[in-house]
Write a structure and sequence with these properties.
CATH superfamily of the largest domain: Metal-dependent hydrolases
Protein name: Cytosine/adenosine deaminase-related metal-dependent hydrolase
CATH topology of the largest domain: TIM Barrel
Number of helices: 18
Organism: Aminobacter ciceronei
Keywords: Hydrolase
Low-confidence stretches: 489-506
GO molecular function, one term: hydrolase activity
Strand content: 15-25%
Distance between the termini: 60 Å
InterPro entries: Amidohydro-rel (IPR006680), Metal-dep_hydrolase_composite (IPR011059), Metal_Hydrolase (IPR032466), MTA/SAH_deaminase (IPR050287)
Length: 506
């Protein structure tokens, strides 16, 4: 299908214009952009869309989300990561979900994402108690049906739980250690065999969907796993997506387990490279940042989740100034409670204004928009396909109505987009040249029916999960002690990372 968008306001995020708005036409032929710029005569047979009083931007990229958490949206609050995970990623008592429920769970994330201008997801799925083929099939099926672009992970942990968090053996009673020690972890061969089967089954199914290699974190995987899956990522041209230094506890883990920061550990293993995307990267040192920049690595910055879990503030300005590619992510639908990237953009723009009184260093709307588009594309190795509006690239676009209250009165379009827009002005969304949101409504699935079906199934799920919560509540008193130990004054964290907002704390 050929689509002609005429006389639109365009933020292309390309080499020629950057994020500077300009007026022009866009021609879409099939899945790709055929023209951007000067006015065109609408080709015969093409659909013409009047772009006057409209804004077109590249589709937003959510560089880090966990769809697993959609079942816990709005369920938890006021817990740091290591305690929150006891309930949202429970240690014991879980059972495999019905694949249909996984399909619906994934749909909820995809529907909210598309309607808010997200055209590409990085879905890092931690399926408990173990990720099977039926489970990952359900996720791919959902994203295939709704029309979103997605990178779907096989998240892997292969170290025993008590060896992933410092001081667990000192604080946890023997009976609880015994409980979690019964959990089987995959071998490197198990994981690679499974990952290879998923790639064969789904990689050629659609040019929108890809398998993502995602070792959970350096402290959660063996050296052999970290190296082997990096090689596999190179082989299948995937990003290497990994959680790094999200919390103070993880900063302490680097020292206790390896005698160095987790970034330095990854670099010593040879897996901190230009395909590596480090989710969070809050408690990084200046040396870490310089190393990440030198290696060409990316950071997936999750400002809302990091605040809700009290994890800290990533050094956004230091990362950018060092040359690290920064993308934006919502993180999970429980640690954030939505997948709306426009919310993430606004918070990212605001949060870092309190980290320094030097207002010349505060984020600009242009930097935020870049991180949400090209920064995200680069983080998943798709910078040559998406992230900007350029001839030859995939037609992943968002069209906003500029006649809404959010853009009235109309001043700086960049500021309106970052600080005023909440998704209600999204009129059309294109993925691969296909209109998947039209007049604010999804075109490929029945949103109401899917929401009703999930609601009908939720009570039974929630009742079971209450029992799981009770089983895991036994661990909470001891995790509180670990959290306090790692965050207390007796831990010399400043040897590894000064708080990004240290001027407020001095």
């Amino acid at each position: 299908m050929t689509i002609h968008i005429s006389e639109a306001n365009i933020i292309a995020v390309d080499a020629a214009h950057g994020t500077r708005p300009f007026k022009g036409d866009i021609l879409i032929e099939g899945s790709r952009i055929a023209h951007v710029g000067e006015p065109l005569v609408t080709p015969d047979g093409a659909r013409r869309i009047d772009g006057r009083n409209r804004l077109v931007i590249p589709g937003l990229v959510n560089a880090h989300v966990h769809s697993w958490e959609a079942m816990f949206k709005g369920r938890y609050d006021n817990m740091p990561l290591e305690i929150w995970m006891l309930y949202s990623y429970p240690l014991v008592g879980t059972k495999a979900l019905d694949p249909r429920l996984i399909y619906l769970r994934s749909m909820i994330v995809a529907m909210e994402s598309l309607k808010n201008g997200v055209t590409c997801l990085v879905d890092d799925i931690i399926e408990l108690p173990v990720q099977g083929m039926d489970a990952i099939d359900a996720v791919f099926d959902a994203y295939h049906d709704i029309g979103i672009r997605a990178n779907v992970s096989g998240h892997v942990i292969n170290r025993p739980f008590v060896d992933t968090i410092p001081f667990t053996r000192e604080y946890l009673p023997r009976d609880l250690i015994a409980d979690v020690s019964r959990i089987k972890v995959p071998t490197v061969k198990n994981y690679l065999d499974f990952a290879g089967e998923v790639v064969k089954k789904h990689q050629d199914r659609s040019d929108r969907l890809r398998y993502l290699v995602a070792p959970s974190g350096p402290q959660r995987c063996t050296e052999e796993m970290l190296k082997a899956v990096h090689d596999f990522a190179r082989e299948i041209k995937s990003a290497y997506h990994i959680h790094v230094l999200e919390t103070k506890v993880q900063a302490v883990a680097g020292r206790e387990f390896y005698g160095r920061t987790l970034v330095q550990y990854l670099d010593d293993l040879g897996v901190l490279t230009n395909i590596s995307t480090l989710a969070h990267s809050i408690w990084v040192t200046d040396r870490d940042i310089a190393c990440m920049a030198e290696r060409g690595s990316s950071v997936a910055h999750n400002p809302i989740s990091n605040q809700k879990l009290g994890a800290g503030i990533a050094p956004f300005r230091k990362l950018l100034d060092a040359g690290v590619n920064v993308a934006l992510g919502s993180d999970g639908i429980s640690s954030n409670d939505t997948s709306r990237m426009l919310d993430v953009m606004q918070v990212a723009g605001l949060l870092h204004k309190v980290t320094t009184p030097e207002y010349g260093l505060w984020p600009t709307a242009s930097e935020i928009i870049y991180a949400a588009t090209m920064g995200g594309a680069r983080s998943v190795q798709l910078q040559n396909e998406i992230g900007s509006i350029e001839t030859g690239k995939r037609a992943d676009l968002v069209l906003f109505d500029l006649e809404t209250i959010n853009f009235t009165p109309q001043n700086d379009l960049l500021n309106h987009l970052v600080y005023c827009e909440n998704g209600s002005s999204v009129e059309k969304v294109f993925v691969n040249g296909e209109i998947v949101v039209d007049d604010g409504e999804l075109t490929k699935v029945n949103e109401g029916a899917l929401v009703r079906e999930l609601r009908e199934r939720y009570d039974a799920f929630s009742e079971h999960h209450k029992g799981v919560e009770e089983l895991n509540r036994r661990f909470e008193p001891y995790f509180k002690k670990i959290h306090k130990h790692c965050c207390g004054e007796n831990i010399e964290l400043n040897r590894y990372s000064a708080p990004p907002n240290e001027w407020l704390l001095s």
